């Protein structure tokens, strides 16, 4: 049986199907319920943030671009009731996307995405005040997802949540709530049996943040089987460079360049901390998201963008971690044309090709 460390090393480079199944209605539609959502289809959700529904051709093009793993983020909020009962049409749409990705030869990660992100309408964060209600819904949701996929082979990884934190409570309690939810995720998936009895599971760290997830208050769940948990981390640091637009409200001084000796050393220190806390203890890490701004919102130095992307990718690969680029394909973080499999930026394409060659990843000649 392959170890978790070796499994993650073999995942190669990864790509996120961003802003598709994870899209959700907002701006005046926050209180949409399963019963009130008449006429709203799964494909409507996929188109909400300017992408077309996922297809086999899209996943084949992702493979053509040189990626071996795809993360399919999914926001379930409008398709799951208070008891965790999932709309069968939506679950079927997610399953179809997974089937297409597997047919394209990709490894696949499926998660619970914006349900746990920032915003009162995104329900997992309400566990700080109503753990019983949230955990009932969360357990039912994961029971439904796990049951749907219980006979799939190990190329499918399940990820408990995305960037979950509880900023409305003291940190000691916030860590405790996340740890309890992560334990509930593992227990619920394992209880469905079949291939889920020993499936690799991806565990979200606190806010998916490096420092917060290396904090000793964050603890991996107990598991009924050894060596089957993977740590999930996202990397957008320093945020004033990677994700701060020139006119953003939360950053007074967005950075346009990156790559000083101090900045390079700070990134390496972050990855060293992840290695000490997790990899050296036998728990591999997946960098489930990383990206810089591109396209119409990119006012940054292009060479710095490429330098940062390459540094994250190589720091991860050097430590046996799987880096998965966040790609909206249509707006502010665009890397691969889903219709062709070509990179929008040939310099970024060459960078990824060089990493594939240097680390002997599958698809090393793709994207040329």
Automatic annotation (TrEMBL):
<dbReference type="GO" id="GO:0030245">
    <property type="term" value="P:cellulose catabolic process"/>
</dbReference>
<keyword id="KW-0326">Glycosidase</keyword>
<protein>
    <submittedName>
        <fullName>Endoglucanase</fullName>
        <ecNumber>3.2.1.4</ecNumber>
    </submittedName>
</protein>
<feature type="domain" description="Glycoside hydrolase family 5">
    <location>
        <begin position="49"/>
        <end position="330"/>
    </location>
</feature>
<dbReference type="GO" id="GO:0009986">
    <property type="term" value="C:cell surface"/>
</dbReference>
<dbReference type="InterPro" id="IPR001547">
    <property type="entry name" value="Glyco_hydro_5"/>
</dbReference>
<dbReference type="InterPro" id="IPR050386">
    <property type="entry name" value="Glycosyl_hydrolase_5"/>
</dbReference>
<keyword id="KW-0136">Cellulose degradation</keyword>
<dbReference type="GO" id="GO:0005576">
    <property type="term" value="C:extracellular region"/>
</dbReference>
<keyword id="KW-0119">Carbohydrate metabolism</keyword>
<dbReference type="InterPro" id="IPR017853">
    <property type="entry name" value="GH"/>
</dbReference>
<dbReference type="GO" id="GO:0008422">
    <property type="term" value="F:beta-glucosidase activity"/>
</dbReference>
<keyword id="KW-0624">Polysaccharide degradation</keyword>
<keyword id="KW-0378">Hydrolase</keyword>
<dbReference type="Pfam" id="PF00150">
    <property type="entry name" value="Cellulase"/>
</dbReference>
<comment type="similarity">
    <text>Belongs to the glycosyl hydrolase 5 (cellulase A) family.</text>
</comment>
<dbReference type="GO" id="GO:0008810">
    <property type="term" value="F:cellulase activity"/>
</dbReference>
């Amino acid at each position: 049986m392959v170890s978790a460390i070796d499994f993650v090393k073999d995942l190669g480079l990864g790509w996120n199907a961003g802003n598709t199944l994870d899209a959700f209605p907002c701006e005046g539609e926050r209180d949409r319920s399963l019963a009130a959502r008449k006429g709203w289809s799964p494909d409507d959700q996929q188109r909400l943030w300017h992408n077309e529904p996922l297809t086999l051709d899209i996943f084949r093009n992702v493979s053509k671009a040189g990626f071996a793993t795809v993360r399919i983020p999914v926001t379930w909020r409008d398709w799951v009731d208070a008891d965790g009962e999932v709309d069968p049409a939506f679950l079927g749409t997610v399953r179809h996307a997974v089937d297409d990705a597997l047919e394209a030869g990709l490894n696949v990660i499926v998660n619970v995405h914006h349900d746990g992100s920032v915003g009162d309408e995104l329900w997992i964060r309400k566990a700080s005040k109503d753990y019983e209600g949230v955990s009932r819904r969360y357990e039912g949701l994961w029971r439904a997802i796990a049951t749907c996929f219980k006979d799939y082979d190990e190329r499918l990884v399940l990820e408990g949540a995305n960037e979950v934190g509880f900023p409305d409570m003291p940190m000691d309690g916030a860590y405790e709530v996340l740890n309890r939810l992560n334990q509930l995720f593992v227990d619920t998936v394992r209880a469905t049996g079949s291939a889920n009895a020993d499936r690799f599971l991806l565990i979200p760290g606190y806010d998916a943040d490096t420092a917060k997830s290396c904090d000793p208050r964050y603890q991996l769940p107990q598991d009924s089987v050894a060596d089957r948990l993977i740590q999930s981390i996202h990397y957008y640091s320093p945020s004033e460079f990677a994700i701060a637009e020139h006119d953003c409200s939360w950053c007074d001084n967005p950075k346009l360049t990156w790559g000083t000796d101090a900045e390079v050393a700070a990134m390496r220190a972050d990855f060293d901390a992840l290695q000490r806390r997790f990899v050296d203890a036998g728990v591999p890490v997946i960098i489930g998201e990383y990206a810089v701004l591109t396209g119409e919102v990119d006012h940054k130095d292009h060479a710095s963008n490429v330098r940062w992307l390459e540094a994250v990718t190589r720091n991860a690969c050097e430590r046996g971690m799987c880096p998965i680029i966040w790609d909206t394909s249509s707006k502010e973080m665009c890397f691969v044309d889903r219709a062709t499999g070509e990179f929008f930026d040939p310099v970024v394409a060459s960078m990824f090709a060089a990493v594939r060659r240097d680390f002997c990843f599958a698809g090393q000649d793709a994207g040329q």
